[in-house]
Write a structure and sequence with these properties.
The chain is an alpha+beta fold. The chain is 37% helix and 21% strand. It has 2 domains: 226 residues, Thymidylate synthase/dCMP hydroxymethylase domain (Thymidylate Synthase, Chain A, 2-Layer Sandwich); 59 residues, no CATH class. The model has no long low-confidence stretch (mean pLDDT 95). Keywords: Cytoplasm, Methyltransferase, Nucleotide biosynthesis, Transferase.
Length: 316
């Protein structure tokens, strides 16, 4: 069963990982170097042992594919998964005059009064991003994150490279190439973005009419982030396969620092008690060909049966 790949990862890190500090101050159980393989012919690898909101996954991927780096598009689609990083830029700016929001990620987990104020401030921030063009331009942009690196990589001579279009063209014209690679890790930019890319590089492989993809992810939040990453890259592989006249093969997920945050241990343990349902199926609008033409309603999940949601705080 597809989902056992993920559940085995969670079990393995719980049993074999080591305590490790991290940038957020939350603390993790960490293991370095792990690989999962998902055969996309068996179904779409969206977890069923907890509810995973596919609408957030597809709107985020479409945001990347647009080359967009401003959270306004995400907010317009009721997607809040990047809010905290933009909000952090706002509350650390000279313009911000509100209550002290230092370490809001950690403080909101232990102080109910602070959490209520934090949520109030973040809601105000999101509404202003939606309503105020100038404010959105100044505080909604996350810098040269995935969308920028994928669609307009900056070269030393001032040119830009559309890596996604280039790799699609290569798959169509030279499918045996060993250079079907897209990189989000630009050493010159990693210190100037809201969050340096966690999923850093991916490579495609064509064989027997199938398109496979391997992702190298430097840092993987097993409870919250990795389920999104699995589904997002399975979707990306399926979209590109369709455009190139191929069928989806495997998604191979290689993790560097695979970790469970200390405040997610209980949630992971609960998830591991649940039996998976059969994998759902992916539906793509047959009238759309180019991956750049898809809208939210052109991508759907069918027959998705799942256990209830398990909440967990994002480490910022």
């Amino acid at each position: 069963m597809l989902e056992e790949q993920y559940l085995n990862l969670a079990r393995f890190v719980l049993e074999n990982g080591q305590p490790k500090g991290d940038r957020t101050g939350t603390g993790t159980i960490s293991y370095f170097g792990y690989q999962m393989r998902f055969n996309l012919a068996e179904g779409f690898p969206l977890l069923t042992t907890k509810s995973v909101p596919f609408r957030l996954i597809k709107s985020e991927l479409l945001w990347f594919l647009r080359g967009d780096t401003n959270i306004r598009y995400l907010l317009q689609n009721n997607n809040h998964i990047w809010d905290e990083w933009a909000f952090k830029n706002w509350v650390e700016s000279d313009e911000y005059q509100g209550p002290d929001m230092a370490d809001f990620g950690l403080r909101s987990q232990t102080d109910p009064e602070f959490k209520a104020e934090y949520l109030k401030q973040k809601e105000w921030f999101c509404q202003r991003i939606l309503a105020d063009d100038d404010f959105a331009a100044r505080y909604g942009d996350l810098g040269l994150v995935y969308g920028s690196q994928w669609r307009s990589w900056q070269t030393a001579d001032g040119q830009t490279v559309d890596q996604i279009q280039k790799v699609i063209d290569q798959i169509k014209t030279n499918p045996d190439s060993r250079r079907l690679i897209v990189s989000a890790w630009n050493p010159g930019d990693v210190d100037d973005v809201a969050l340096p890319p966690c999923h850093t590089l991916f490579q495609f492989y064509v064989n027997d009419g199938k398109l496979s993809c391997q992702l190298y992810q430097r840092s993987g939040d097993i409870f919250l982030g990795v389920p999104f990453n699995i589904a997002s890259y399975a979707l990306l592989t399926s979209l590109i396969a369709k455009e190139c006249g191929l069928v989806p093969g495997e998604f191979i997920h290689t993790l560097g620092d695979a970790h469970i945050y200390q405040n997610h241990v209980g949630q992971i343990q609960e998830q591991l008690t649940r039996a998976p349902y059969p994998a759902p199926q992916l539906w793509l609008n047959p009238e759309k060909q180019s991956i750049f033409d898809y809208d939210i309603d052109d991508i759907k999940i069918e027959n998705y049966h799942h256990h209830p949601r398990i909440k967990g705080a994002v480490a910022v």
